[in-house]
Amino acid sequence: EHKLQSIEQLIFSSLLIDQIENKLNQIFTPSVENKVIFDKIEKEYSPSECSSKPFIRALVIAVCNSCYNEKKIDTDLFKKRVPILKKYITNKGDLELESLFAIQTLTHRIIFDLMYDEEIVREDVFLTWRTEDREEGHGICVLSLKAFFDWLTDGYNDIDDYFFQKINKNH
Prior knowledge:
Elements: H1 2-27, H2 34-44, H3 47-50, H4 53-67, E1 68-69, E2 72-73, H5 75-89, H6 93-117, H7 123-131, H8 138-144, H9 146-154, H10 159-169
Antiparallel strand pairs: 1-2
């Protein structure tokens, strides 16, 4: 029963992260100044929400996504966003750790995208992998790749088009 409860919490957390990430993706555009971003975050989220693990995970992913252009990180833009990350993460051990889990999630997404784009792994094999549960932590990994599998099953030609469409749909 404890394992079922943990899975339910993971699913809820994953859905919450997606919701927060979608809202934050709307805020993080290259031309928006940090002050505007801080104001929007403070207007949209309470201090307790801003110190939650789902918020931190979504924040880190949104910042990284906004700095990811043409399969590269715009380090200047990332450095511009450092004060935002520091405000919500620095010197908060469990949230610092959560930020690393967010990077891990994002890395999985990027690698899966590359494996698919470069035709290393076929679509049907990705879908088979999603349903296999042989390794510990597999379910968590599948949840972290939800966006990839949504894209894969929604029929978009390019994952970048999918995320662009997803971000614009929320504007």
